[in-house]
Amino acid sequence: MRQITLLLITILVFSCKQEQSTKFLTADTYRAQLQVDDNTTLPFLFKVKDANTLEIYNAEEVITVDEIEYKNDSVFIQMPVFESYIKAKIQDQTLTGQYVTEGKDRSVPFTAAPAKTRFETTAKPNTTITGNWETTFSPNTDDSYKAKGIFTQNGNTVTGTFRTETGDYRYLDGVINGNQMQLSTFDGSHAFLFTATVTDSTLNGTFYSGNHWKEPFTAKRNDNFTLADANTLTYLKEGYETLAFTFPDENGNLISLTDDRFKNKVVVVQIMGTWCPNCLDESNYYAQYYNNNKDKDIEFVALAFEYAKTEATAFKNIKRLKDRVGINYPILLAQTGTTSKSKANEKLPMLNHVLSYPTSIFIDKTGKVRKIHTGFNGPATGEKFTEFKTEFTTFVDVLLEE
């Protein structure tokens, strides 16, 4: 009996030592690579500040990651706000593992090692792509859609974004290597890679979204190209003047626009999802505006359309978003199990369609819908983001003064 007891103690002590025998990330700059297909990797840079903090870089964007855990020879890096995480084994200064989004059952092979450059360049650029580009994704198909490429080039380095009618592709960072363009971004939710052959007036390439989606695109220089007005794409069906819904908040309370907190106030209704980077950009702006203008007769309420399979998981993601961003207005759970826009439209049948996450609906003090803005032009769009903020505050001020 004594021998068995000693054996159990030995096993327990050994197991504890194994559990505590961790390796840690070394302070350095790393190039991470996601394997998006057999022959293509999507790179991004991050810098380990200390064992518990790192920063992800996309052009001017810096994303601080401060939820890092170690176990034995592995590290778990939780993305801020979003549910996705990286799990990897540490061998010297090399990481090997997966980028995982459990709610979507997606996993992308991940590696990282110390390096200072996102993309290697071996040749001077044949041309410069600075300017605006009229872009068509999935040309000559039923899934075709327009976008506006906005790029700035300095030597081999290129930054910019693609704007679509439903939002932008955020901060893109890359190079022109000879006649080859490579741009990427990684924000914890989306992993985008754009590759293209470049001439002075055309781009012909491929857009990769993680390892689950890719499509061709073409582009031509066109400084006069404009997208459709974001205030005209979504509207109320004939016979409707207002919006109506009843959805639960995280405490199980059913919230409606007829509640006292919204009466005789300007209301901004935000159609969004916790998984959506453009929604995060918009939420950052709205949260700041709301917190700075609590003395005014304005309320915000967000309707979350979540792919989480259960309400408990969806509300956990909502709480995480509210806590990380500092959102003090209600986020209601409108849908779980899918982010289908047609399903979302069933919840808001007075709209002609739900075209984009996010979409913002502006309601005046009498309860009438005065404007619906589809999509969001975030900080990566530069002057377009500035224009949106000016338009937003000007229009809200008009409604407040009525």
Structural class by secondary-structure content? alpha+beta
- What is the CA-atom radius of gyration, in angstroms? 24 Å
Distance between the termini: 85 Å
CATH architecture of the largest domain: 3-Layer(aba) Sandwich
Task: Bin the helical content.
Answer: 10-25%
How would you name the oligomeric state of the polypeptide chains in this document? Answer: single chain
Strand percentage:
35-45%
Number of domains: 3
| Shape call | globular
Number of beta-strand segments: 25
Tally of DSSP helical segments: 5
Question: What is the CATH class name of the largest domain?
Answer: Alpha Beta
Can you summarize the main beta sheet? 9 strands, antiparallel
Q: How are the strands of the largest sheet arranged?
A: 4-3-2-1-9-8-7-6-5
Q: How are helices and strands ordered from N to C?
A: HEEEEEEEEEEEEEEEEEEEEEHEHEHEEH
Mean pLDDT: 94
- Contiguous low-pLDDT stretches (5 residues minimum) are 4-18
Give structural notes.
The longest helix is centred in the N-terminal third of the chain and has 19 residues, at 2-20. The chain has helices spanning 2-20, 277-292, 311-325, 341-347, 383-401; strands at residues 29-37, 40-50, 53-58, 61-65, 67-71, 74-78, 85-91, 94-101, 106-114, 131-137, 145-154, 157-164, 167-168, 172-177, 180-186, 191-198, 202-209, 213-221, 246-248, 254-256, 266-272, 298-305, 331-335, 359-363, 369-374. It is 19% helix and 42% strand. The chain folds into three domains: 23-114, Lipocalin (Beta Barrel); 131-221, Quinohemoprotein amine dehydrogenase alpha subunit, domain 2 (Lipocalin, Beta Barrel); 246-401, Glutaredoxin (3-Layer(aba) Sandwich), CATH 3.40.30.
